[in-house]
Each structure stands twice: as C-alpha cells, then as structure tokens.
Design goal:
Helix content: 25-40%
CATH topology of the largest domain: Aminopeptidase
CATH architecture of the largest domain: 3-Layer(aba) Sandwich
Number of domains: 2
Structural class: alpha/beta
Number of helices: 13
Distance between the termini: 16 Å
Shape: globular
Radius of gyration: 23 Å
Largest sheet: 8 strands, mixed
Strand content: 15-25%
CATH class of the largest domain: Alpha Beta
C-alpha cells in the first residue's frame, strides 16, 4: 500500500500546483474566504464527503474580528464574479466560511481530524518582475490580500489528501474529519469552529505548516510546542470635544487616555512562570490641532506561554484600560477580536509521524520537536482535543522559501505539495491501524 500511496501522491502533483495557484491568485482574508471555501466545498461534495457549512461548521456567537456586513457582502459579490458557486457562497453569508467534511469508512476505528487553514494575509503582494507568482501570472488579483504564509498550499494539500483517502476508502478504518479553518491569521477561526463541534469525539488531530521554522526542502519538524496563547483587543475611548484655546476645561481628552494606557500596558509586570508579550500595534486619535480630542482607538494584543499566563496579562490590560478611562473622565469600550489557547504536541502522535517520515526516505533532516515561540490557532483545536482525551501534533514541512512568512515576496517550493499529501495519508493509515 505504501508504494501505491506514493505513486498516487506524485501523480497528482500537477493538479496540486494548479489548485495552489488558483487559490493564491484569488487570495481572501479572514471571514471573507467565500470563493476559497466554495472551491473546497464543491470538490469535497464531488468526492462524496459529508460537508458541513455555515452555522453547522462555525458558531456565529463565537466569531471574533468579523468584518462589517457591507464589507462581507462586497466580498461575496466578488467571489461569485470570480467563479464561485452562488448557492455555496450564500450558505456562508455573514462570514461563516469554515468547512468540516467527514469520510466514514464504515468500519470501527479512530476518528482522525486534519486541520488546513485557508485565509490569506492583509497585505499587497510584491509587484516586482522577479517575484515567481508574478512571473507565472498567479499573483493575487485581490487588493490588500496575499497568500504570504503558505495557506494556499495547505488548501491544495487538504484537497489532495481528501481525494486520495476517498480512493482508499475500502482500506481505511474509522472516520476522517477534514477541518478547513478560516481566520487563522489573528487567531479567530478555531474558537468558533470548536463551538460548532469541529473536534468533538476526535482521537487524533494533525496540523501542518509549510516552511516557518523548516526553511529548506527535505526538512521535517515532527512536533511543535510552546505555542503562545493570545488575546487580541480593540479599545475605543470616547471623550468630549472642546475648543483647545478658549475652553479646554470643558473637554475630556480621549487621546491622552489612550496614550496613558498604551504606556502603562507596556509596564505590566512579566510573569515568573513563563514568557509573556504585550504590544499596542496602532493608535489613532484626535480631530484637529485646536480641538480637545474626543475619540481614540488602539489595537493591542497579549500573549503568554500558557493560557493561564495570557489570562493574567489580559486581565491586567483590562484593569489599566479602565484606569486610564477613569483618570481622564472618558468612556471606554473593549472588543475582543481574536484569541487562542497555548499548546504542546503529543509525543505519541509525533512518534507515529516520525516513523512514517523515516520510512518514506525523502527527508534529509528530521527533527523531533521545536518550540514555536509564537501563536498558531491550531493549538486551540489541539488543546481541546487533548483536554477530552485525544492526541495531536503540529508538524512543519520544510520548503525552500523566497522570503520569510508574512513578507510580500513570500513564495515556497511547490514540489513539497505531493510529499505533504503522501506523509499525511500514510500517517492517517498508520494511526488507524494502531
């Protein structure tokens, strides 16, 4: 069977590249992935999967950082113009762009979940002639959206895995659940998909990322840990405008409240039990030179080596935000726009994946584990699975990169797509046999 899986994986390389480039060309950011999700759903239905969409896949009440309704409508219209099935797009109205698909072998066995993230970054892609996607005419045509993190490759591998598992259905045991997650950037998608039951009953969950800390083709990092939990907040202060020269005493200065909060947030004591981070990334305030500023908005995030440490940081942040509002006599509003749990991969699942990788013989640098030191929404899914008795691992598939992740010149070696499909399918088969 192993030889057959390799042959079939390699035979689909051209189709994987086509899929990746199609998704790349029509990049869509979090909660607006209407065309991307429609392409995925259409293919999965074609393959015979039971596909859950809309509120069956995403719990609306748990969605974070959702664009305004008019913006969502505009993206829906664009998706249809770019070839998406209008009925599928309609089913995702409101930004419900997550998908869950299941394949039941009909035989007893474990439930194995595979997560593939689907969103692009909020950047414009490089326009230089030497940029490979530009040279090969598959650079993003959507302003302000570019696949600068490899999620387009994840989508292609996910559909390749779905196709190959369907062909092998008679050889499988248990069930396979494919989770196509929107809004991974900004840590927005996992929480809402967990709320809709995406990982209910899961025995093993696998997540993959092309590149990141595996930056050369032939490298493989079999498990990842030290995922930082995060809380992402948008803070609005509302004061009272007044003439800055004639009646400053009548004003309530929102700008000063925001500036004071920003400085004091960075003075929160660090935690003795693990790493912490805090950042105020943007601050926009004021109306004019001679007007006491009545409005201020800043966007911030906390991070912690554990979920408990992040909760400490977020709690301190809320206290400081409120204190600044009281000091300057302004109103305030805090909106949580993203957040995810910390996490550690399971050694047992890692060992299975490593064994498969060694047997494949195509990796020249296999590493057991690496600390992530950043945030990935997969950790939320994996941690919930582990809290309910399951296991999981997040692995990094090495690929030569043209630039770092989230860089407008990012691109990766497409030859790893079929390798990734082979590794995932063989790992699924091995886990089912145990």
């Amino acid at each position: 069977m192993n030889d057959l899986i390799r042959q079939k994986s390699q035979a689909m390389q051209a189709e994987l590249v086509r899929l990746r480039r199609d998704i790349h060309r029509h990049a869509e950011v979090g909660w607006t992935e209407f065309r991307t999700a429609a392409v995925i759903a259409a293919r999965l239905k074609e393959l015979g999967y039971e596909v859950k969409m809309g509120e069956a896949a995403v719990k609306k009440a748990d969605m974070l950082g959702v664009p305004a309704p008019d913006e969502l409508s505009a993206h829906m219209e664009r998706a249809v113009k770019q070839g998406a099935d209008p009925a599928l797009v309609k089913a995702m109205e409101g930004g419900l762009t997550g998908l869950v698909a299941e394949l039941d072998s009909g035989k007893p066995g474990p439930l194995i979940a595979l997560r593939f993230d689907i969103d692009a970054n909020d950047i414009n892609e490089a326009s230089t002639a030497e940029h490979f996607p530009r040279k090969e005419s598959f650079a993003s045509v959507n302003p302000g959206a570019a696949h600068a993190c490899g999620h387009d490759g994840h989508v292609a591998m996910g559909l390749g895995v779905a196709s190959l598992l369907t062909e092998m259905k008679s050889e499988l045991k248990g069930k396979i659940r494919l989770i196509f997650e929107p809004g991974e950037e900004g840590s927005r998608g996992a929480r809402a998909m967990v709320g809709a039951g995406a990982v209910d009953g899961v025995d093993h969950i696998l997540g993959v990322h092309i590149g990141f800390q595996a930056t050369k083709t032939g490298q493989l990092i079999c498990s990842t840990g030290k995922f930082l939990a995060t809380t992402k907040l948008d803070v609005t202060y509302t004061g009272k405008p007044a003439h800055a020269g004639a009646a400053p005493q009548e004003g309530k200065n929102a700008l000063l409240a925001a500036a004071s909060a920003s400085l004091n947030l960075h003075a929160i004591a660090r935690h003795g039990q693990g790493a912490t981070r805090i950042t105020v990334g943007t601050l926009v305030a004021g109306e004019g030179r001679n007007v006491i500023p009545a409005h201020a908005v800043f966007k911030m995030e906390t991070r912690g080596e554990t979920s408990e440490i992040d909760e400490f940081m977020a709690g301190e942040a809320r206290r400081i935000i409120e204190g600044s509002a009281l000091t300057y006599g302004v109103d305030y509003h805090i909106e949580m726009v993203g957040g995810t749990k910390s996490g550690e991969s399971s050694p047992a699942t890692r060992d299975v994946l490593k064994k498969v990788a060694i047997e494949m013989g195509c990796f020249n640098d296999i590493r057991d584990y690496i600390g992530f030191g950043a945030t990935e929404d997969f950790s939320h899914l994996m941690t919930v699975v582990q809290e309910n008795g399951g296991l999981g691992t997040y692995f990094m598939l090495g690929a030569n990169l043209s630039a770092g992740h989230h860089n407008d010149k990012f691109d990766f070696d497409e030859s790893v797509l079929s390798t990734g499909v082979e590794l995932i399918v063989k790992t699924v088969v091995t886990l089912q046999a145990e």
